[in-house]
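Course exercise 7: structure representation. Students receive a sequence record and must write out the corresponding structure in token form. The form below is the worked example handed out in class, using Regulator of G-protein signaling 16 (203 residues). Read each field label carefully; the graders check that inputs and outputs are placed in the correct fields and that the protein name is recorded exactly as given.

STUDENT ID: A-19
EXERCISE PROTEIN: Regulator of G-protein signaling 16
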Amino acid sequence: MSCWMPGCPALSMCRGLAALPITCLERAKDLKTRLGILLHKPELGHKAGSSSKLQLGSRRRDSSREVLEWRESFDQLLKSKSGVNAFHTFLKTEFSEENLDFWLACEDFKKTRSKTKLASKANRIFEEFVQSEAPREVNIDHETREITRKNLSGATSACFNEAQAKTRTLMEKDSYPRFLKSASYQDMSKQAASRGASKRSHT
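STUDENT ANSWER:
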């Protein structure tokens, strides 16, 4: 609407707006935007909240099942990322986490495809875990240590197989049963079992 008459209301309104500081106009626009967001937010928030609750519920069910599966076999524990983390935390209390760290390093080593990287990784693993008086020396016999040393001369993805198998057996026979009897695992399995029972009662 345009008006050239001196007493026109539109003209006085335009002059009034022009006299306002720019910051006031910017704040008015900002308020309008925020009001628009707030009007739509409850509906969006409700949808997002519902889906996140569903995802959290399914994650809890999955993790509960996993925790109970750890006691079925050592393999089941090693297949689970959260199981490996829980076992590693337990081994730290016994000051024997180097056995699991060595096993994990060997698993990662087997995935290496580059021959150059294979050789450098092999030397690094040997120096850290296998050689006599290594900073994180694993508990393997002298014969296995020497076999592994010889394997380094022509490093392949299988050069730590024997040492890794010995360490795995040691963990399975020694540390794993103690982990299952530990207070931390007993608490986790009780919580997992009660969540499972609660789910069954609601179905």
